[in-house]
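Suppose a colleague, Dr. K., hands you the sequence of a protein chain of 74 amino acids and asks what its three-dimensional shape might be. Before reaching for any lab equipment, you can write down a predicted structure in token form. Begin with the sequence itself:
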Amino acid sequence: MSWSLLLLLFLLIVLLLETPQLVRLHSLPDMAVFYGVWAIAIAAVLANMTGLTQARPLDWIRSFMLLLPGGSPK
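The predicted structure, expressed as tokens, is then:
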């Protein structure tokens, strides 16, 4: 089993375990950040598996955070 598939499996398990806890919090900003960072992680793993060149993950996270309310650069 390759490391990328193992990481995808781990990310899926994290999604399944953390979603009920996030729903109980009733916090939309927390859910948006979790799902945004989770989607960035999935996209980075898939891009790595296909051999695509990619931006650094911290650049992706910064771009996502700018979309959230109050996420303007300082």
